[in-house]
Write a structure and sequence with these properties.
alpha+beta, 4 helices
Length: 80
């Protein structure tokens, strides 16, 4: 998969204030900033992102994605 395809899938499933994604076609890394993460712990945030990619993960089309999830406030506090 191309990084732009993964970005589109994430953006179709959730509202992101910021989304950065990099990868080599096999392994991908993302920074996802969304108000939808407010009040959710790390596992709940990961589940939320994986739910947007469920179909591609199930088919094996996407299999290696690591990501960091932040609320806009957390991102701002980190200098984002």
């Amino acid at each position: 998969m191309h990084p732009d395809q993964i970005k589109q899938l994430i953006l179709a499933g959730m509202v992101c204030e910021h989304l950065a994604l990099d990868g080599d076609g096999q392994h991908f890394e993302a920074l996802i900033v969304s108000a939808e993460f407010a009040g959710k712990n790390r596992v709940q945030r990961q589940q939320h992102v994986y739910a947007t990619l469920k179909e591609k993960l199930a088919t094996g089309e996407l299999h290696a994605l690591s990501f960091k999830t932040l609320t806009p406030e957390e991102w701002s506090a980190q200098g984002g």
